[in-house]
Specification:
Structural class: alpha+beta
Bound molecules: zinc ion
Largest sheet: 6 strands, mixed
Low-confidence stretches: none
Strand content: 15-25%
Shape: globular
Mean pLDDT: 97
Radius of gyration: 24 Å
Number of strands: 20
Strand order of the largest sheet: 1-2-6-3-7-19
Distance between the termini: 29 Å
Length: 426
């Protein structure tokens, strides 16, 4: 069996469910594996049980550095929902089962094997090849990469980085695309507050019902719409799909004509999205609420600001007696879709599957790539290719029951990470 699959099995058998994490167990396993291949390792921990591992093959000179970035924590698994032990790491019909197989101990293992195999071959790049197995990505309580870039910037600074986020193989209208995430949307939620006057529910006329006043505002947010715009990531995706970029106004229809999946991929990337998701008003059935709070999930395109979002939301809501407050702004960084790492992705895809092409994409979710981009201007991509497992099945298994990964995809991923190192740090 492959080294990557075997290492993944061992990683899955260490329960690093976050919270509480306990990632130090994984950091020790990886350190022992890498040190046996002669790779220099260092642990960084804010608290002893939540260590991050940084390993490094030093470059010959000061050429570009590449960080293989991953996280060792996983989300909760409810064993009752699973057909197999989520921490068993069983190999069944060519697939390794367990929590983290896809998100993302598979890539952790592939990254470690890429480093160890290169070290054993005596390979050295012009710049450093770095392996960062971070803690605490799933919760983000400040024990992982967010803390590392602040507390130990010299340990994790890199010119380029490969992380999770994409790598899916999709067939659209007869064309095969491998998606590479080069950007992330910003999560910028708002709270809408509507005030009224409380009163007994049996006498509605003496009160001023904040919930009723909020209703039309919620409806307006539900109908929020913007003029579509084509960000570079969508232009790149459309160019890969069509060979040219269609006009902005007709881009969505053109994608839909190819396949519903193509439209699904680009629709949330044509502008900011707005979804009212939570509401709170009276805590008692017989009390008319004086306050109604609506939480609005808002996702911005890379480059857009919460201030721009607020202007757009106020224009949508119109004049009225309400407060609108931005509660958070996270992510929203991007990297250029060109240069040595992009070339490495493109070449790898063409070599592995002649006729297939690499296509950039902007993802809605947040990954640790953001911290490297924000701290060091790192060109960070989410790319861990999958061919045996189709994208739809993978999406269903991540953070869910029966998570598993085909060994052949682990092998594909390991080849990719070796290729990335050898081309970027050449
Ligand atoms: Zn993850």
């Amino acid at each position: 069996m492959s080294d990557t699959a075997r290492l993944l099995q061992e990683l899955i058998r260490l329960d690093t469910t976050n919270p509480p994490g306990n990632e130090t167990a994984a950091a020790h396993l990886l350190r022992d594996y890498l040190e046996a291949a002669g790779v220099e390792c260092e642990l960084f921990a804010r608290v002893p049980e939540r260590a991050n591992l940084v390993a490094r093959i030093r470059g010959r000179g000061d050429g570009p550095s590449l960080a293989l970035l991953s996280h060792t924590d996983v989300v909760l698994a409810d064993a009752r929902e699973w057909e197999r032990n989520p921490f068993g790491g069983e190999l069944v019909d060519g697939e390794v089962w367990g929590r983290g197989a896809l998100d993302m101990k598979g890539e952790v293992a592939a990254s470690a094997v890429a480093l160890a195999s290169l070290a054993r071959e005596g390979w050295r790049g012009s710049g450093d090849l770095i392996f960062i197995a971070a803690a605490d990505e799933e919760v983000g309580d400040g024990f992982g990469l967010e803390w590392l870039v602040e507390a130990h910037p010299d340990a994790v600074r890199a010119d380029f980085s490969v992380n999770e986020g994409a790598g899916d193989r999709v067939e659209l209208g007869g064309k095969v695309l491998y998606l590479c995430s080069t950007a992330e949307k910003m999560s910028s939620p708002f709270v809408l507050r509507v005030h009224g006057r409380s009163g007994h529910a049996s006498m509605p006329s003496i009160a001023d019902n904040a919930l009723v006043k909020a209703a039309p505002l919620v409806a307006r947010l539900g109908a929020f719409d913007v003029e579509p715009q084509l960000i570079p990531e969508v232009e790149g995706f459309l160019a890969a799909l069509f060979g040219e970029v269609p006009a902005t106004a007709s881009a969505l229809d053109a994608a839909r004509a190819v396949s519903p999946l193509a439209a699904e991929l680009i629709e949330p990337l044509l502008g900011m999205t707005v979804s009212p998701t939570m509401a709170s008003a009276s805590g008692k059935r017989n009390v008319i609420p004086a306050l109604c709070e609506i939480t609005v999930d808002v996702r911005l395109l890379p480059g857009q600001t919460p201030a721009q979002a607020e202007t757009a939301l106020r224009a949508c809501l119109g004049e009225g007696d309400y407060e609108l407050v931005n509660t958070e702004a996270q992510g929203g960084t991007r990297s250029a879709i060109s240069g040595p790492l992009w070339d490495a992705v493109r070449d790898f895809v063409q070599t592995e599957e002649p006729g297939a092409v690499a296509a950039p994409i902007c993802v809605a979710g947040f990954t640790d790539s953001h911290w490297l981009r924000a701290a060091f201007g790192t060109v960070a991509y989410g790319f861990f290719p999958a061919r045996a497992l189709d994208a739809e099945t993978a999406a269903r298994l991540i953070h869910s029951a029966n998570e598993r990964v085909p060994v052949s995809d682990l092998e594909l991923g390991t080849r990719w990470l070796r290729h990335a190192a050898q081309s970027v740090c050449a």
